[in-house]
Design goal:
With 497 residues, this protein is mainly α. It contains 22 helices and two strands. A hairpin with a 2-residue loop joins β1 and β2.
Length: 497
């Protein structure tokens, strides 16, 4: 696309509709990270239950239960995107976010005694978290798909990267909101009483954080969720979905408003050329494109980033006593934002592959730095800085670039189903990593005690990061500058070879 054609793009309109879709990314980040501030209060609350023992494994599940909804939501997102369209699917996601925020705040609603912990209440709470996870799963697949399908090819990487910026910004916002909600109050004092078993030191704990603080943290999501559900009603459906459904007139209208009349007709012709068959089988373009999409998702999770993001305050608490763990978490959120911007402003210049490879190497260095710090008992600032390097490296690479590739790498005629499968694998491995992190992190062995677990888990993540770099270098194609319609020709050629 030449400069004259680029100038015809209606930047204001494109920014507006992409900005609304990006709000879905913010909710994605907000919902998945809200647990980082709430999990200790939540653990303390359910440790008071008289009808069951709230174990470490139960807490790991409860902290990660939203991910079950994410797996289901992402798995059905392809069906929803094809049956309802991208826009209506995002409206549904917004409603689910809103209901989850209210239900997680007050899981006792109509059925249980207010403020009394019980096993039944734990089930109800997890139900509401899973409901929010459904919204996250749908939004995680369809928000980048929506952005990719309305964006001109020369801006697509940048605009989809803004979705990741919104995810990280949502996490930073909720870190800050959690910090403000906690205020002068302190986290509960939880003491170990056996392998995988804990008890609340009620006498030494702030009762407000046990009963109330976590509720405010969850309900704070209701405000952006309601706004998103409302605003998404005013954006257009994507031209590619409209064309697949045979509504060329509306597709041309949307394309014209974004790209100008001349370019709109050219793009519509390209879309129609690749959309003649709307029911192509998943493996029409070979198994490699599906494999690469799945493995991009798997690697994005098994490098361990979400375990760090979800349990950041707990991790910093174990590393340093010089500053509040929540303060460290906010600082990490700011660093994450800054390095996500690196990807936003360089993805169309450097391409997708170099950012993924260099980010993987940076993550390996950070993870191994944390591991060595536990072996050598280095100054607390070293593992803290290593965590920052690890997180920052993810934010300019696997964070945004994985979503860019998943949104653009699949041919038009299989994109809905292929994206759904890839994103479902992402959430499956997110759940596996997040639910196993605390047991691995707290693992004891001989005289080394929990230091062994701290060392082992980060060394494992570091090794996986090196494998991820090799995978990208050898197998992932560069998609910079290619249109979504070019993906059909790319994978047909690879299948023949």
């Amino acid at each position: 696309m030449n400069n004259t054609q680029q100038e015809r793009v209606n930047i204001a309109y494109l920014t507006g509709i992409v900005g609304v879709a990006i709000l879905g990314g913010l909710l994605f980040g907000y919902d998945t990270a809200v647990i980082s501030g709430a999990e200790k209060g939540l653990q303390a609350f359910f440790l008071q239950a008289a009808d069951f023992q709230y174990s470490d494994a139960m807490h790991g599940f409860t902290s990660s239960s939203a991910l079950i909804g994410c797996i289901i939501g992402s798995a059905v997102s392809g069906f929803l995107a094809s049956a309802l369209g991208r826009k209506k699917s995002l409206i549904l996601a917004g409603i689910l976010f809103f209901l989850s925020a209210l239900g997680s705040y007050y899981p006792e609603f109509l059925l249980f005694e207010a403020g009394k912990a019980s096993y039944s209440l734990l089930v109800a709470f997890n139900f509401y978290r899973i409901l929010g996870g459904l919204g996250v799963g749908i939004a995680s697949a369809i928000c980048p798909m929506y952005i990719a399908e309305v964006s001109p090819s020369h801006m697509r990487g940048t605009l989809v990267s803004w979705n990741q910026f919104a995810i990280i910004f949502g996490q930073l916002v909720v870190y800050f909101v959690n910090f403000l909600i906690l205020g002068e109050h302190t986290n509960p004092i939880i003491e170990k009483v056996g392998e995988g078993l804990y008890t609340l030191n009620a006498a030494a704990s702030d009762p407000w954080t046990v009963s109330t603080s976590w509720r405010y943290m969850f309900v704070s999501e209701a405000f952006p969720a309601g706004l998103f559900a409302l605003l998404i009603c005013f954006v257009p459906e994507t031209p590619r979905f409209l064309t697949l459904k045979g509504d060329d007139a509306k597709a041309l209208q949307v394309l014209t408003r974004i790209n100008g009349t001349q370019q709109a007709h050219t793009i519509l012709a390209d879309i129609k050329a690749t959309a003649r068959q709307t029911t192509e089988k998943l493996f029409t373009y070979g198994w490699m494109v599906i494999f690469i999409g799945i493995m991009l998702s798997v690697f994005q999770q098994i490098v361990g980033i979400n375990a760090v993001l979800y349990f950041a305050p707990r991790i910093f608490e174990s590393m340093s006593e010089s500053m509040s763990p929540m303060a460290y978490t906010v600082i990490m959120g700011v660093v994450n934002i800054l390095f996500t911007l690196v990807a936003v402003f360089t993805v169309e210049k450097f391409g997708r592959k170099p950012l993924l490879v260099y980010g993987s190497i940076g993550m390996a260095v950070g993870a191994i730095g944390v591991s060595l710090s536990n072996i050598l008992t280095l100054a607390p600032i070293i593992p803290v800085l290593s965590i920052m390097v690890y997180s920052a490296s993810f934010m300019f690479s696997w964070g945004p670039i994985c979503w860019v590739l998943i949104a653009e790498i699949f041919p038009n005629t299989i994109r809905g189903a292929a994206v759904a499968i890839a994103v479902a694998f992402q959430w499956i491995f997110n759940f596996i990593v997040s639910s196993t992190f605390i047991p691995l992190y707290n693992m004891s062995m001989g005289d080394m005690g929990s230091r062994f677990g701290h060392c082992f888990v980060y060394a494992l993540y570091g090794i996986i990061c090196v494998v991820a770099a090799i995978f990208v270098w050898r197998l992932v194609p560069e998609t910079k500058g290619k249109t979504l319609e070019d993906m059909n020709a790319l994978w047909k050629k690879n299948k023949k070879n």
